[in-house]
Amino acid sequence: MNFENSLAAARKMDQEDQLRTFREEFLFPQHDGRDVVYLTGNSLGLQPKGAADAINQELKDWHEFGVEGHFEAKNPWYAYHEMFAAPLAKVVGAKESEVVAMNGLTTNLHLLMVSFFQPKGKRVKILCEAKAFPSDLYALKSQLRFHGIEEEDGLIALEPRKGEHTLRTEDILKAIEDNAEELALVMIGGVNYYTGQVIQMKTVCAAAHAVGVLCGFDLAHGAGNVELKLHDWGVDFAAWCSYKYLNSGPGSVSGVFVHERHHGTDLPRFEGWWGHDKNERFKMGSNFKAIHSAEAWQLSNAPVLAMAVHKIALDQFMRAGMDKVRSKSLQLSSFLRYIIEDTSSKNEGVEFEIITPKADEERGSQLSILVHGEGKAMFDHLTKNGVVADWREPNVIRIAPVPLYNNFEDCFRFGEVLQDFLDA
What we know:
Oligomer: single chain
Distance between the termini: 32 Å
CATH superfamily of the largest domain: Type I PLP-dependent aspartate aminotransferase-like (Major domain)
Shape: globular
Number of domains: 2
CATH class of the largest domain: Alpha Beta
Structural class: alpha/beta
């Protein structure tokens, strides 16, 4: 696609954008009387304007009905989580019976590993990426310790090749093959938080299954960002948060996928009453009878106030359509990459290294810029001039133009502030 580094060109693309009106549905922080250039939806998405009304509806129903709100509220609380099955299934490429909204992300990863990490005999190892999000590493290492396995004996953490920033698919596949007799689980971030690299999940999952190993993904940076087909790919399990690309509010509810082949099996599982047969739940029996779906992994009833915003956010995605969201995402990030590279080429002695892969199938919205020597100074300049980006040690600025509320003019304005920093 041919781009032009000009405000007129950016505004022309915005006029042709099928999703342009969604921007009006979000609240932007302000800087000097105008909307900030908000490029950190990969860390926390903006607030939908409908969020306050959604929460107030539940507060109103709590006021009017008290405990009877479980059945009399506009959106009855008893079955509140069930509203998310259809939209979440579309977001992650699943059957409605394979998804459920519950808990927080790392909590869900632990609950899923109770079922899917079962070390036996020589098969005791977990394969992951070395530059995983720290919470994932904490979870994996503590799971190993829980089973009496030392980190050095149980964790295979893959590093990129020397001089490279991202993992090669062939290296992941080779690691699976080389450790086939000792692996118990492959658990990788589907989209790497640091580099923005999209792992070839279908290929990795197939390789794991070929040697008899289960495979799961942390999709914190995948859900609402990239095309997912978890059911068709045969993924065993996955979990994600909803406060990044899914715009559901700080610390909001997580989501879980469990492939239907594992429903109704004798997998070990921590149990709670919201995973119990709905028809018998209030008979208050002492023996657990699992729901024949991903809901069986639930422990407790829905956190309604947090989920109220989640419903508003998912409705936006359903109105936009995931295919259009993904198409615009690729256009935005391609234009932003062009702006960065064009700015760099016009300034002698300046080179910004974008460590996010360029190929469409290997990236989502995020671009990670490695700035040698001046990274923090550049980040601080962006912040002071109304650009909200994200800093990650040791020297990376993460930016993510997301399709529901970012536009091409945001990308152009980023380039203006970038040039201003270079001039200074």
